[in-house]
């Protein structure tokens, strides 16, 4: 009896209205009340076995889903704007998008990606934009750290975000400013204890092993998303396999003589021809990063923006998906790594966002083996200068954040029905 009750309840909640194939359109243009939670609703649909049509370049990258009572309830609870449209209207819309005379396309999202965040178990005095927005959007995720990565747990997941980590083993190069701070001392002690327990002679060697494990995960078909200090420190760690680029202040022994000449750019994901910085009292790890405050090119928050490129939705669906937004001009924001130096970006990498008229590249995508990666400069899209110890951003105040939307585009990307690109 109980089994029959649940079958009837499921049929009621997930059956289309009146047997008519009506649709729900979730607009993603400036009429949307909560862009960030709209992504969470799209994920909710996938988790419940529903197919989502991602309408690329239509009203800011809107979503089209079957009209189900449970979905309408979910949209109302989360405060997400939507429109009911008829079967005939949805067919007409899809036919219009398919026309060759516009820059729009439809991408089917079919499976909720399994998401994991690489985040330290220690309580550091800063937050992470990705975990903030995943939590706000109500998208579930797991956490792991070095031990789990090294034992192969990444194979369980479709999408990996790496926290604002320093894969070179230099603790973010906070040595000069914070070496006597209690949180910094705890971080170093914890990292050294873990490296010893895992059988490594020092933290930098453990971190490079983790970087290579992530490399293998991507090569086998995984998707990696990294922000702030993670992208450049990750590539530096890959390039420095077998050599010591860490000053004695961090690990107690000297660097490899002529280390720069032994850097192997063929091993990196995105960057090449960079110069590493082995001065422990300087913040940067290399010249990949462009921090306008340090270069003297700062323009002030009110004039600081980066611009998204427009791609062909029909011929270049991948960068099109990753740049869906209700505006092409987005407020810039600082981080341990703020922007990437264009001259250090490999020619095979797709630049998706940059600060026009400068060397500053903000948002890039590339392929590695059977997988893909996306690097995003800066720490928090809604906190222009996030300082150590400041409280986390309240996303209830930034429901329509364009900068945070780019993160969530990446979260949904692995759900897309794989198509061969025409270029």
Automatic annotation (TrEMBL):
N-terminal signal peptide: 1-21
Keyword terms of this UniProt record: Signal
Protein name: Asparagine synthetase B
Species of origin: Chloroherpeton thalassium (strain ATCC 35110 / GB-78)
């Amino acid at each position: 009896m109980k089994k029959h009750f649940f079958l009837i309840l499921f049929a009621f909640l997930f059956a289309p209205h009146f047997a008519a194939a009506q649709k729900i359109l979730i607009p993603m243009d400036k009429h949307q009340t909560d862009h960030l939670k709209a992504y969470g609703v799209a994920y909710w649909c996938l988790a419940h076995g529903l197919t989502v049509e991602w309408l690329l370049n239509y009203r800011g990258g809107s979503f089209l889903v079957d009209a189900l009572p449970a979905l309408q309830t979910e949209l109302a609870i989360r405060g997400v704007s939507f429109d009911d449209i008829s079967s005939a209207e949805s067919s007409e819309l899809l036919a219009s998008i398919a026309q060759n005379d516009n820059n729009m396309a439809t991408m089917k999202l079919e499976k909720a990606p399994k998401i994991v965040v690489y985040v330290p178990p220690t309580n550091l005095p800063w937050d992470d934009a990705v975990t903030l927005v995943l939590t706000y959007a109500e998208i579930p995720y797991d956490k792991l750290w070095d031990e789990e990565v090294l034992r192969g747990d990444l194979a369980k997941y479709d999408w990996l975000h790496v926290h604002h980590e320093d894969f070179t083993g230099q603790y973010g190069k906070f040595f000069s400013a914070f070496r006597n701070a209690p949180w910094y001392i705890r971080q170093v002690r914890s990292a050294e204890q873990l490296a010893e327990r895992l059988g490594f002679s020092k933290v930098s060697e453990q971190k490079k092993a983790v970087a290579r494990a992530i490399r293998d995960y991507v090569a086998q078909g995984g998707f990696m998303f990294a922000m702030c200090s993670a992208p450049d420190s990750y590539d530096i760690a890959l390039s420095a396999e077998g050599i010591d680029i860490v000053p004695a202040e961090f690990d107690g022994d000297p660097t490899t003589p002529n280390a720069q000449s032994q850097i192997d750019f063929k091993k990196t994901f995105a960057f090449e021809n960079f110069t590493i910085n082995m001065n422990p009292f300087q913040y940067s790890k290399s010249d990949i990063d462009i921090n306008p405050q340090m270069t003297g090119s700062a323009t002030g928050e009110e004039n600081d923006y980066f611009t998204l490129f427009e791609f062909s939705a029909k011929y270049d669906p991948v960068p099109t998906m990753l740049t869906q937004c209700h505006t092409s001009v987005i407020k810039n924001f600082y981080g341990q790594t703020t922007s990437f130096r264009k001259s250090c970006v490999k020619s095979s990498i797709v630049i998706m966002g940059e600060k026009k008229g400068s060397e500053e590249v903000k948002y890039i995508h590339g392929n590695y083996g059977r997988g893909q990666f996306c690097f995003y400069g800066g720490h928090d899209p809604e906190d222009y200068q996030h300082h150590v110890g400041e409280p986390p951003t309240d996303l209830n105040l930034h429901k329509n954040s364009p900068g945070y939307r780019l993160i969530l585009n990446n979260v949904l990307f692995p759900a897309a029905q794989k198509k061969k690109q025409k270029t």
